[in-house]
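We both want to read discrete structure tokens more fluently, so let's practise on a single case. Would you write everything just below, so we can both look at the same thing?
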Amino acid sequence: MTDSEKLDLLLNKVTSMEGKMTSMEGKMTSMEGKMTSMESEMTSMKGEITAVKNEMTSMKSKISSLEYRVTDIQLTLDNETNKGIKIIAEGHLDLSRKLNDVLRVESEKEMALLRLTVLENEVRRLRDKIEQPA
């Protein structure tokens, strides 16, 4: 192989390597752009995560407040309301017995009123059917 052929071969290889280097530069530039985009997205995600953390802290505070209020309501029910109901129920035991006697009579009256209501509705339906044009 002559010196000229060797130089041509060397020139071809250098040119080939130059093309590959240019291609690599393009790919590296593309990767830099993608990395910049990823950094921007990561910064955005950090901001969103911080916002979520702040909301969670706020929710924890609200839950703590709710727990206190539920405990207060439960204590009120146990210590005041339930005892008051028990006292009232004991005082009304005789009234309940007397009421049962009255309710027997009222029950019959109530049944008669229910029958009357049913009959009135049936009369109204019949009247509406009769008044409807055929």
About this structure: The CA atoms of residues 29 and 94 lie 94 Å apart. The radius of gyration is 46 Å.
